[in-house]
Design a protein that fits this description.
454 residues, alpha/beta, FAD/NAD(P)-binding domain, 2 domains, five-stranded parallel beta sheet, 23% strand, globular, binds flavin-adenine dinucleotide
Length: 454
């Protein structure tokens, strides 16, 4: 039995990243730590669009004991193998509208994506928030700033926008792309280039809408988006549609790029409702299969896709960044939330090491950074490359796809090469294991603590 006081962890933000971290901490550390989660909103909420999770992330859900509850709200035909993805070249009108004339490829081996209604997914995470006196959720608490005393292990002081204060030993920023935690971390580090830690526009906007299954079925009972993930691709634009919420809703996300604007600041609201006509105009002249889908949309929202440039670190001595706060990315690999989940799980695994104390926190956080930063930043890059392939902004050979073994010059051959290359870029989702990364993080911590004790 140790007399060491409990490590007090402040989790800022109760989105998918913050909630997964809290659930993971409880599963792996139990009441050995004290966790306060501070959420700016009135409750744990999410907007009702779709989200896809890959097998690597599903492994975490199984480990945390969430998979049964989540399987109950996933698409009924996702199954263990998940869904395969069809990719189509759609930016021209096909004479007679025959879908068979549209070049098609398929990610046959990249099954496994499990689609969810985002709000329901987050509700399952929230329902698993620990009913344990060591874990407290505080709502309507927006972090304004915090101070990390330089001397020893004096507590970190948190200040909220309502003027209230709290203390902790470790602050974890799960506060999304506009992270206050990241802002203070980079200000305090007095890096030569703190501006490089700020969000930039990817040059892409996303149109999002949810369509009731019955509405699309009425228009075309054979529409492929009723049963699987479909990627409609064309010059500077693509769109994905897939069934979710046990097949009752079809989620559509239309991505429109202005590549020359990448890296600039987006002018205007990052999220807003727009007239349906704007969506229809964006894809005017595309294949009839797509127009059918778009015509079914009612409420359409527009999201500016902003990203975080590759940060030189995700941690300070007693500060860590998780999820979009660390690596907000484009959605072309459907992995932003998945990477937030991986961050939370690996960080909790390290904090569960019995040697993780106030004194050893810098080693814990360095091990987290050493494993999670290169991995998640690689996914940021893969996502960007995938988007450029779908938008015909990069040829397969420019993207390093010469070796995929598809010959020929037709549009169908080009699409097959793109499809094969996109598939290669996604192999990590089901051919690598998060548990291997967790083990490497634990080994890095062990090595650092062993050196220190000798
Ligand atoms: C069009 C689109 C499609 C996507 N599709 C997918 C997909 O299929 N699969 C996938 O894995 N990812 C997808 N993503 C990415 C995913 O949505 C994000 O990466 C993910 O939600 C990030 O989670 P997070 O918890 O890090 O941040 P957030 O979801 O932004 O949560 C941050 C939380 O912190 C709170 N907060 C903010 N500031 C403060 C503060 N100062 N104090 C207290 N609380 C604060 C907020 O209220 C919020 O609850 C998609 C994104 C987009 C735009």
């Amino acid at each position: 039995m140790t007399n060491e006081p409990k490590l007090r962890i402040a989790v800022i933000g109760g989105g998918i990243g913050g909630l997964t971290l809290a659930v993971s901490l409880h599963k792996l550390c139990g009441s050995r730590v004290e966790v306060d989660i501070y959420e700016a909103a009135q409750t744990f909420t999410e907007i009702g669009a779709g989200i896809g999770l890959w097998p690597r992330v599903w492994e975490i859900m199984e480990t945390l004991g969430l998979s049964a509850d989540l399987a109950a709200i996933s698409s009924s035909d996702a199954g263990d193998a998940g869904q395969s993805i069809e990719i189509r070249k759609s930016d021209y009108t096909v004479d007679g509208g025959s879908p068979s004339e549209v070049p098609r490829g398929a990610y046959s081996q990249i099954g496994g994506v499990r689609p969810f209604h985002r709000a329901r997914f987050q509700a399952v995470l929230a329902a698993h928030f620990p009913a344990d006196p060591s874990y407290t959720a505080h709502f309507h608490k927006r972090l304004a700033s915090y101070t990390v005393p330089s001397a020893g292990s004096a507590p970190i002081e948190l200040t909220f926008t309502d003027g209230s204060q709290a203390v902790c030993d470790l602050v974890v920023g799960c506060d999304g792309i506009k992270s206050v935690v990241r802002g203070v971390l980079y200000r305090d580090r007095t890096l030569a280039y703190p501006a490089d830690s700020e969000p930039v526009w990817s040059g892409t906007v996303a149109y999002r809408s949810l369509i009731p299954r019955a509405v699309l079925e009425k228009v075309n009972p054979e529409h492929p988006c009723l049963s699987q993930v479909v990627l409609f691709c064309g010059q500077n634009k693509h769109m994905t549609g897939f069934p979710m919420a046990q097949g009752t809703l079809i989620n559509i996300v239309g991505l429109v790029s202005q590549p020359e604007r990448e890296g600039t600041k987006y002018d205007g609201a990052w999220v807003k409702e727009v007239p349906k006509l704007e969506l229809l105009d964006a894809y005017a002249g595309w294949e009839p299969m797509m127009t059918q889908l778009l015509n079914c949309a009612e409420k359409v929202t527009l999201w500016a896709i902003n990203t975080i440039p590759h940060l030189p670190t995700y941690v300070g001595e007693r500060v860590a960044l998780v999820g979009d706060a660390a690596h907000a990315m484009t959605p072309h690999q459907a992995s932003g939330a998945g990477q937030a989940i991986e961050d939370g799980f690996v960080l909790a695994s390290l904090l569960a090491d019995p040697r993780a104390t106030r004194e050893t926190l810098p080693h814990v956080l360095q091990a987290y950074d050493a494993i999670r930063r290169p991995f998640s930043q690689d996914i940021v890059q893969r996502s960007r490359t995938s988007g450029m392939l779908y938008d015909f902004l990069l040829s397969p050979s420019e993207a390093g796809g010469d070796a995929v073994g598809v010959a020929g010059d037709s549009a169908a051959d080009d699409l097959a090469r793109r499809s094969a290359l996109a598939q290669q870029l996604m192999l990590w989702t089901n051919q690598t294991s998060i548990m291997g990364d967790r083990d490497r993080a634990l080994q890095a911590l062990d090595a650092a603590l062993t050196v220190e004790s000798t």
